[in-house]
Amino acid sequence: MGKQQYAEWNRWRALGLGLLLGLSVMTTVQAEPRLLDRLVAVVGNEAVMESELEQRLEQVRLQLNDRGVRPPPADQLRQQVLERLILDTIQLQQARQAGMRIDDQTLNATLNRIAQQNGLDLRSFSRQIEAEGLDFAQFREQIRQEMLIGQLRQRRVGERIQVSEQEINHYLSSPEAMEREGREFRVGHILLPLPENPTPEQTSQTFARAEALLARLNAGEDFQTLAVSSSSGDQALRGGDLGWRSALALPSLFADQVVTLRPGQNAGPFRSPSGVHLIQLLETRGGAQHLVQQTRARHLLVAVNALRDDAQAQAEARALHARIQAGETLADLARQYSDDPGSRQSGGELGWVSPGQMVPEFEQAMQQLAVGEVSQPVRSAFGWHVIQVEARREADMTASHRRQQVRQLLAERRFEEEVERWLREIRATTWVEVRG
């Protein structure tokens, strides 16, 4: 094992999987039985023993030593570690009460991943753990507990974090976002002026003119032609073209809107001291493009239910497939027989489907079909499907993909802060008695 790998392993020895999962906690490992043990706290209906606290203290000392950090006085360190042990116990209790569990298959996959990251197979990894003086079965359960706490936090804390569309817009027009993406925008602009102190009637009339121009643009009229004829802006005689600019160089009134538009889309009217504005995004450049292959498909579903077992559902799906092969259309049969209420009335039409939208079995079968081809019956958790591919296209999902990335980024930034708030809440609402 190389020096760098060994350092990584020492961190795992001290922290378990916490660092790998992004957790800030180290969960309880049942200590070896001792002749002498005593109760240090009661959490709900669970006892926390001195042996657990001592093992946790040893883990923390190892962690601090690996990082070159001098530990605080022993009594302060003990108090801190006991409080963290109490919080972990509360979280594990809540996870069990919610019926959450980490099955052996998921746990083994995680252990394999840890071993591979350390350049070992699982057997060698377990031997290395034993060589470090740790019991592999206990280590394995520690990993399970840390995964369980991570799963609980994702559920309980994740559902509390809401990122609004306005917040996404603000981030997309921020210096940070623009610096990351290197995007530039070519924007068309129409200005309808207002006097310095307009009356309500003048303002209303100007907005009405702007709405009428917007309707003409949305109906397909050329933006630059309308700008020449109607705009009072500085660039009116250039078709209102503001040229290539970063979002930071655009008027702030426009920036929040521009980053949400696709080329050819219009926005407005907006009010400013100089008047009422309409804009159109003419072009964009820079930034990574996110292209995906979309499939337009339809299907019919034969569900497994109280009246029809799996074998019967499969047999019915095969019979319907045979009728399609004989000349009937999947759309007609879906309207009559499909058990999918969301698509039945439209003849099984699913619209344009992007990767990841459908369950894996369905998507895998759909991707293997040629345009116009109908699949054999395909099993999923919902029942048996017969699928037909109608068309394929490459779609530019850059804007929606970017928005999803920003939503995730903003949620992750709030996660740790929200975890701390949630931990204080569950600590305050759980009965805890500290004995020593």
- The largest beta-sheet arranges its strands as 4-3-6-5
Q: Give the % helix.
A: 40-55%
Overall radius of gyration: 31 Å
Count of separate structural domains? 3
Number of helices: 16
Please tell me what the overall shape is. flat
Mean pLDDT: 83
Share of β-strand residues = 15-25%
Q: Pick out the low-confidence regions.
A: 1-35
Helices and strands, in N-to-C order?
HHEEHHHHHHHEHHEHEEEHHEHEEHE
Q: At the third CATH level, what is the topology name of the largest domain?
A: Triger factor/SurA peptide-binding fold
What is the total tally of β strands?
11
Distance separating the two termini: 41 Å
Oligomer: single chain
What is the name of the CATH class of the largest domain?
Answer: Mainly Alpha
Name of the CATH superfamily of the largest domain: Porin chaperone SurA, peptide-binding domain
User: Major β-sheet, in short?
Assistant: 4 strands, antiparallel
Protein name: Chaperone SurA
EC number: 5.2.1.8
GO molecular function, one term: peptidyl-prolyl cis-trans isomerase activity
Pfam families: Rotamase, SurA_N
Describe what this molecule looks like in 3D.
This is Chaperone SurA. Its main location: periplasm. Keywords: Chaperone, Isomerase, Periplasm, Repeat, Rotamase, Signal. It is found in: Periplasm. It holds the Pfam family SurA_N. The model is unreliable at about 1-35 (pLDDT under 50). This protein has helices at about 5-15, 20, 50-65, 75-95, 105-115, 120-130, 135-155, 165-170, 175-180, 200-220, 225-230, 250-260, 310-325, 330-335, 360-365, 400-430; strands at about 40-45, 45-50, 185-195, 240-245, 265-270, 275-285, 290-305, 350-355, 380, 385-395, 430-435. Helix 4 (about 75-95) crosses helix 7 (about 135-155) and helix 8 (about 165-170) packs across helix 16 (about 400-430). It has about 425 residues and is α+β, with helices and mostly antiparallel strands. About 25% of the residues are buried. It folds into 3 domains: about 5-155, Orthogonal Bundle (Triger factor/SurA peptide-binding fold); about 185-285, Roll (Chitinase A, domain 3), CATH 3.10.50.40; about 290-395, Chitinase A, domain 3 (Roll). The chain has a 4-stranded antiparallel sheet. It has a 4-stranded antiparallel sheet with strand order 8-7-10-9. About 50% of the residues lie in helices and about 20% in strands. A hairpin with a 2-residue loop joins strand 5 (about 265-270) and strand 6. It contains 16 helices and 11 strands.
